[in-house]
Each structure stands twice: as structure tokens, then as C-alpha cells.
UniProtKB/TrEMBL annotation:
Its EC number is 1.2.1.75. InterPro entries: ASADH-related (IPR051823), Asp_semi-ald_DH_pep-lack (IPR005676), NAD(P)-bd_dom_sf (IPR036291), Semialdehyde_DH_NAD-bd (IPR000534), Semialdhyde_DH_dimer_dom (IPR012280). The keyword NADP applies. The active site is at residues 150, 245. PANTHER family: ASPARTATE-SEMIALDEHYDE DEHYDROGENASE. It catalyses: 3-oxopropanoate + NADP(+) + CoA = malonyl-CoA + NADPH + H(+). It comes from Sulfurisphaera ohwakuensis. This is malonyl CoA reductase (malonate semialdehyde-forming). The keyword Manganese does not apply. The lineage of its organism: Archaea, Thermoproteota, Thermoprotei, Sulfolobales, Sulfolobaceae.
Length: 356
């Protein structure tokens, strides 16, 4: 029998933290054992948390006291999940890795360290081997693995599946993102109610930068097409939905490509997590909807057999012989953050980087 792994959730009261608590409370072998925060330290979790997700605070968790973010208090913890805010996360995660802990981070601080994996388990699982280099170079017993920006994942998952099999020329992406993507309390209501808030050039650029890294890793050892030949552009926005980033993608190809074939490719896309039957792996990482007016954020963000873990794709149309259009919908705090982190942990356990 497998032993139960104890997890610490740093930032457990945040919007990503609550999804970790919710998902791990039903996990077959990873249990939330330590909840850490900042302003809520010393108080019972059930009293301070704003449970802005489905269900209720699990009974066995409600009375747990929120503790400080200190590795010395977590001797018996096996995995650290770190949805800490940008800036606060970086040094804390390094400290934990140095002390020997496996750290899975949803924060941006280490996403572009060349020896830190930026992991989407179905797309670039081989990048886990960067951990060996990371440990050697930094003389750490532990390590850091990151998950990409939720917005980047909503595009990278379908684009990665396409990029593997077709001669892609480029993709133009327009995002319509939910409020929870900005954490709690997030955007002032007067900026976003009755409005579409452009997120600006900086957000557009970081989205593209992460997708480029992931696509280049998807195509390892394959020269054709070269990534430098691929153009990507993004225009990002936020609107007043609660969860779920909706993205419109125009994808162009270097040769004639039929939308129907691409649709089949997306429907049949599977990765290592599905082969290994990891507990948080959805049987379909991409769900393709055929109805002309789906996916819709309200109805489809929890789709799939592991709710919120599938990217829902639809409106696949031929624009011209070398261009298709599609839309994608990702649950930003589940597949785009906590669920992606748990799936990464499960893969790290299978690959022997976290002791079973
Ligand atoms: N929201 C998303 O859709 C999403 C998706 C992908 C990645 N991410 C990333 O995940 C991280 C968390 O996002 P979020 O939306 O969950 O944010 P959030 O709702 O603002 O939550 C922040 C959490 O961090 C804790 N915290 C703040 N400063 C801290 C510090 N100095 N030391 C220890 N704990 C601290 C807070 O604890 P107290 O309540 O106790 O103060 C709270 O639990 C960010 O880096 C974000 O970029 C978010």
C-alpha cells in the first residue's frame, strides 16, 4: 500500500490555496497537513478563509490553525504547494528547496529560471529532468517545479497538441479572463463592471513568452518547423466573470490544413498522465464541443471527469486553406493553478522525485 504524503499549502487562504485544499481533501494519497498564510496566521482556517469555490470548507480542515511559512515547523511534510504572490514566493520557495523540500509553485517568480521546469504534465514531462541540474548547480536537496500562467495554459494546451503534429506558422490569441485570475480581492469593481479591461502590453508579452517556452519544449529534437519561424501574438483582457479564462485563437499553418483533422487531433490528445492513470489526470485533457455556441464560461468551466481539469475547445472553423479558428476555456484556478500543481506532484511521485 502507498503511504499518505503530507502536503503544506502556502497561501492556503487565497483563491488558488482553496482549490488545493478542496482537491487534496479528496486525494487518494496526498493530504493537506499544514496550511500557511500571512495575515491569517494563528486563526482557524474555517474562520478566515473566503471559500469562493464549490462546496464547503472540509470539516477536518476547518479547525486547523493557519501557521507561518517556516520550513522549521514542517519537518514531517513531504510536498510544498506554493501559490504565494509574486515577489513573496521566490525567496520562500528557494529556502524550502534548500532545506530539502520538493516545491511546486504556481507563482511567476521562478518560471524563467533555466534549470526550473515550467510544467504542463501532458506536454513537456521530460523537462522534469531539469531538476537534476538544478540540484547539482544550486547544491539543493529539494527542488522547485513551476506551473505556467493560467492564461498561457489555456492557449498552450491546444496549441501544444497542434504543434506536435502540424506545421504551424503562428497563432493570434485574444483572451477574456475572469476576475479570480487576479487573486482576492483583485480588481476594483469600478474598473471592471460594465467594462472590458485591457490587461496591457506587459501581460500580453508574458503570456507569449511562456507559450513560446512550452512549445519549444514540446518540439524537442524536432527541427521542422523551427520555433523561430512561428509568430505568436496575444491581446489580453479581464471581464467580470468569476472563474474561467475564455480565449479565441486564430492558428495559421505553413501548408493546407483541414480544421476537421485538427479537431480529431485535439479530441485524441493524451499525455503521460493519462497513460499512467494519475488520479488528477482527466481522461480527456482537451474536450472538444461541437455546438456552435459552446463552450460557455458559466456552463463549461467545470467540464470533464476531473472537474475543471480539461481545457474545453470549440468553434473550430476553417478560415482559409491554411488557417483555422478555435476557442478554448480553462478553469484558471484548477487546471491553470492548483489542479495543475497536484497533477505535477503525482507525476513527480511516479518518476521518483518525490518519495512514495
Ligand atoms: N488566481 C489564479 O487564477 C492563478 C492562476 C495561476 C497562478 N496564480 C498564481 O498563484 C499565486 C496566488 O494567487 P491567488 O489568486 O491565490 O492569490 P490571493 O487570492 O491573493 O492569495 C494570496 C495568498 O497568499 C498569502 N500571502 C500573501 N502574502 C504572503 C506572504 N508574504 N507570506 C506568506 N503568505 C502570504 C495570503 O495569506 P493571508 O490571507 O493569510 O494573508 C493568501 O493566502 C500568485 O502568484 C498567482 O500569480 C494564480
Amino acid at each position: 500500500m502507498r503511504r499518505t504524503l503530507k502536503a503544506a499549502i502556502l497561501g492556503a487562504t487565497g483563491l488558488v490555496g482553496i482549490e488545493y485544499v478542496r482537491m487534496l481533501s479528496n486525494h487518494p494519497y496526498i493530504k493537506p497537513a499544514y496550511l500557511a498564510g500571512k495575515g491569517s496566521v494563528g486563526k482557524p482556517y474555517g474562520e478566515v478563509v473566503r471559500w469562493q469555490t464549490v462546496g464547503q470548507v472540509p470539516k477536518e480542515i476547518a479547525d486547523m490553525e493557519v501557521k507561518p511559512t517556516d520550513p522549521k515547523l514542517m519537518d514531517d511534510v513531504d510536498i510544498i504547494f506554493s501559490p504565494l504572490p509574486q515577489g513573496a514566493a521566490g525567496p520562500v520557495e528557494e529556502q524550502f528547496a534548500k532545506e530539502g523540500f520538493p516545491v511546486i509553485s504556481n507563482s511567476p517568480d521562478h518560471r524563467f529560471d533555466p534549470d526550473v521546469p515550467l510544467l504542463i504534465p501532458e506536454l513537456n514531462p521530460h523537462t522534469i529532468s531539469l531538476i537534476d541540474e538544478q540540484r547539482k548547480r544550486r547544491e539543493w536537496k529539494g527542488f522547485i517545479v513551476t506551473t505556467p500562467l493560467c492564461t498561457a495554459q489555456g492557449a498552450a494546451i491546444p496549441l501544444g497538441a497542434i504543434f506536435k503534429d502540424y506545421k504551424m506558422d503562428g497563432a493570434f490569441i485574444t483572451t477574456i479572463q475572469s476576475l479570480s485570475g487576479a487573486g482576492y480581492p483583485g480588481i476594483p469593481s469600478l474598473d471592471v463592471v460594465d467594462n472590458i479591461l485591457p490587461l496591457g502590453d506587459g501581460y500580453d508579452a508574458k503570456t507569449i513568452k511562456e507559450i513560446f517556452r512550452i512549445l519549444s519544449e514540446v518540439k524537442r529534437n524536432v527541427d521542422e518547423p523551427k520555433l523561430e519561424d512561428v509568430s505568436l501574438a496575444a491581446t489580453t483582457h479581464r471581464i467580470a466573470t468569476i472563474h474561467g479564462h475564455y480565449e479565441v485563437l486564430y492558428v495559421s499553418f505553413k501548408e493546407e490544413t483541414a480544421a476537421e483533422k485538427v479537431k480529431e487531433t485535439l479530441e485524441n490528445f493524451r499525455g503521460e498522465p493519462q497513460d499512467l492513470k494519475l488520479p488528477t489526470a482527466p481522461s480527456k485533457p482537451i474536450i472538444v464541443m461541437n455546438e456552435d455556441t459552446r463552450p460557455q464560461v458559466y456552463f463549461d468551466r467545470w467540464a470533464g471527469d476531473i472537474p475543471g481539469m480539461s481545457v474545453v475547445v470549440g468553434r473550430i472553423k476553417q478560415v482559409n486553406k491554411r488557417m483555422i479558428r478555435l476557442v478554448s476555456l480553462i478553469h484558471n484556478t484548477v487546471r491553470g493553478a492548483a489542479g495543475g500543481g497536484i497533477l505535477a506532484a503525482e507525476l513527480l511521485v511516479e518518476k521518483g522525485y518525490i518519495e512514495k
